[in-house]
Amino acid sequence: MGRKKINIREIENSRQRTVTFARRRAGLIKKAHELSVLCGVKVAMVIFDAKNASHVYASSGAPEDLFARYLNKQFLTNESRKRKDHAEGDEEDS
Questions:
Q1: Euclidean distance between CA atoms 26 and 36, whole angstroms
Q2: Cα-based distances in Å from 26 to 14, 54, 82, 84, 93
Q3: Which residues on neighbouring strands pair with residue 46, listed in sequence order?
Q4: Measured distance CA(91)–CA(37) in Å, rounded
Q5: Average pLDDT over residues 71-92
Q6: Distance (Å, rounded) from C-alpha 76 to C-alpha 63?
Q7: Which of 11, 26, 63, 79 could form a disulfide with 17 if both were Cys (CB 3.0 to 4.6 A apart)?
């Protein structure tokens, strides 16, 4: 038996909304942890709730380090990797 399909819209009942938020936040953090462990990647995330409280998760070390790395653009994107690989291929041909 499958799960019941729900309409994705804001939950009107505040108590149910709080319970759903807590449950789904825990599920999201669990998925982030699994992604980190299974694939050997670093994951950081921040969630702000309705009361403007933050919920932060980092797979390794301080989340501030990973956020700073992103904000300072100290990472490779798919496009920069392609350019780097293409440039290295040109050097091997020379």
A1: 15
A2: 18, 14, 36, 38, 51
A3: 56
A4: 35
A5: 74
A6: 19
A7: 11
Q: Would you say 85 and 93 are in contact if contact means Cβ atoms under 8 Å apart? A: no
The type of residue at 19 is V
**pLDDT of 54 higher than 70:** yes
Encoding tokens for residue 78?
């798919």
| Mean pLDDT of the chain, nearest integer | 88
**Each residue of 8-45: pLDDT tens digit?**
999 999 999 999 999 999 999 999 999 999 999 999 99
Question: Could you tell me how many residues make up the chain?
Answer: 94
92 exposed, middle or buried (CB, 10 Å; 0-12, 13-18, 19+)? exposed
Strand, coil or helix: what is 3?
A: coil
Cα separation, 77 vs 2, in Å, equals: 38
Dihedral Cα 71, 76, 79, 80, nearest 10 deg: 110
Half-sphere exposure of 32 (CA within 13 A, CB side): 17
